[in-house]
Amino acid sequence: MIPGIQSRRRFKDLSEQEILALAISSEEDDARIYRMYAERLRGEFPASAAVFDGMAEEEDDHRRRLIDLHTRRFGNVIPLIRREHVSGFYARRPVWLIENLGLERMREEAEKMEQDAERFYRTAAANTQDAATRKLLGDLAAAEAGHSYTANKLENKHLDTETRDTEKDTAHRQFVLTWVQPGLAGLMDGSVSTLAPIFATAFATQDTWTTFLVGAAASVGAGISMGFTEAASDDGQISGRGSPLKRGISAGVMTAVGGFGHALPYLIPHFWTATFIAFVVVFIELWAIAWIQNRYMDTPFLRAAFQVVLGGALVFAAGALIGSG
After folding, report:
1. Using the 8-state DSSP alphabet, how is residue 98 labeled?
2. CATH of the domain spanning 9-159
3. Which residues touch 100 (CB under 8 Å, ≥6 apart)?
4. SS3 14
5. d(Cα 44, Cα 131) in Å, to the nearest integer?
6. What average pLDDT does the chain have?
7. Cα-Cα end-to-end distance for the chain
8. Phi, psi of 74 (to 5 degrees)
9. 9: enclosing H helix or E strand
10. Could you give the CA distance from residue 86 to residue 79 in angstroms, rounded to a whole number?
C-alpha cells in the first residue's frame, strides 16, 4: 500500500457537508491558479491577464455561493478537506510552477480545469439529497460547462483584433528567442564543428567503430559545452530571451543531435557504405538548418543554403584533407 493512500476518503463516502467543503477548497485553488497565470502574463500580455483575472473572479463568486449554502445548512465551521484527501479525485497538474509557461499552454490548462470542475459538480449533485444543495451544484456544473462562453466574452472584451495580433507576435518572438535560436545555434555547431574530427578520423583510420566513438564523444562533449554556455551566458532578465534552462536544453540537445546525425552511420561495418550515408545525412542536416533559418529567422532560403553549405563543405574538406594526410 502506498503511504497516504489508505488514509484517503472515497468520494461516495463523503457527507454532503464534506462535498460542499471540497467544492469550496477546489474553487479557492482554481482562483489562485488563474491569478497566478494572470501575474505571469501581465507584463507581456496584459489583455490575456485581464481574461484570467475575470475567470478568477468567476471562481470567487462560486466559492461565495458555496460558503453561503454551507453556512445556512451546517454553520460557519467548514471541514478541512481538499482534492488530495479524496481517493480518485482529479488533481491539478502543477504546471503553474513552471517559469515562462506559454500563453497557449495556460489556455489549454484552463480549459481542462473547467472540464474537470464540471464533471465534479455533476457527480456531486448526483450524490446529494438536499434540494437546495443539488440545485446549486447543478447550477455550478452548468456554469463550468459555460465557462468557455464566459472566457470568449472576456476575450472579446479585452482582446480586440490588434491586441490579439500583438500578443501572437510577442508569443512567437518569445518562442523563437527561447527555443528556436539556441536550438539553431546548437544544430549548426553540432552539424558543422563535428565534421572535421569525424571525417578526419574516418579517412585516417578507415575504421568505422573508431570513427563512431570519436563522433559520439565529439557530439556529447559539444552538446554539454554548448548547453552550459548558453544557459550561463544570459539569465534572460534583460534580454527577454526566456528561461536559461530551456535555452540551455535546446542548444545542448540540438548540438548533440547535429553531431550524432553523421556519426551514427559509422555503426555500419562497411567503411564506404557508412561514409556515403554520412554524406547524405550531412546534406540533410545542412538543408534543415537553411530551412529553419528561412522559416523562423526570415533569412532568404538561397542565401541561408549557400552559407551553411559553403561552411559545411569547407569544414568537411579540412577534415578529409587532414585525415588523408
Report:
1. S
2. 1.20.1260.10
3. 174, 178, 242, 243, 246
4. coil
5. 46
6. 80
7. 67
8. -125, -5
9. strand 9-10
10. 13
